[in-house]
Amino acid sequence: MCRGWYYFLVSITVTKADGSTEYLSLENSRGSPRPAAPTPPELSTIIAAIEKRLYDGITTQAIYRLAFELLRHTEQKAATRYSLRRALFGLGPTGFPFERYLGRVFEAEGYTTKTGILVPGHCAEHEIDVAAYKTEHSFVAEAKFHARPGIKTDLQVAMYSYARLLDLRDATICTDDICGIKEFWLITNTKFTSAAEKYANCVGLTILSWDYPRKNNLHDRIQRLGVYPITVLSSLSPSQVATLLQHDCILCSDIVEKPHMLRYLHTTPSKVEAIIAEATGIGAGGVVNR
Q1: What are the structural domains, with CATH classification, of the chain?
Q2: Number of helices (H) and strands (E), helices first, in the chain?
């Protein structure tokens, strides 16, 4: 009987992205990437293959790469869905694409957004990564992009963000009554340190990461809204991704709705068809990755 990825239980130690080690256990593996689309027989085959290649001290990254490779050979669509979390790391190397992507996420939640704007505070001028407002709510946000999963956003960044909020209290991001800056969000594509989480909760700073808070975190929002970045598409090369991002093509839905943007890639018609087909499939089926 197929046990499923999160029932993968072996008494070995794994090395996490931040360098720490722990036993691979039922509870810890619940948070690991798990396939979305393979059938039970396919999933059983994948798990059996991984079990044979485990060794004490294996890194979680090595397990991910092995699982992804097996998935890619099993079902291309499942492999694409599996890569969502890693796709966020493709919104680099600068943080600007990540900021623009967050703007699109919040637009899908009904906000009007601005990215990369300058707002004068009481004592200094501040570059605001994301400003968002709608009839009943508004906030500004600092986007901390990291190119590797082992890097966490720490206490110093949280304290700096709160200091910016204090200096911006008299500023506004639009002309509506709701647009006074009363909330400052700190958003990262990786994780926060426990000290940063504790401080943010104490001073009232909203923080958002891939898996924080437990509900309505960044992953939950992406899944619920269906706002998948083009970096999730395996049919695009890194240089093609960079080209499309330069032309403000950020989401898979942008490709589906405006396929003419693919002309900037100067590629073959068959390649264009493959990109559109994959983007359409992602939009229809969603992406699953934990």
Answers
A1: 5-82 (no CATH), 96-224 (3.40.1350.10), 229-285 (1.10.150)
A2: 12, 10
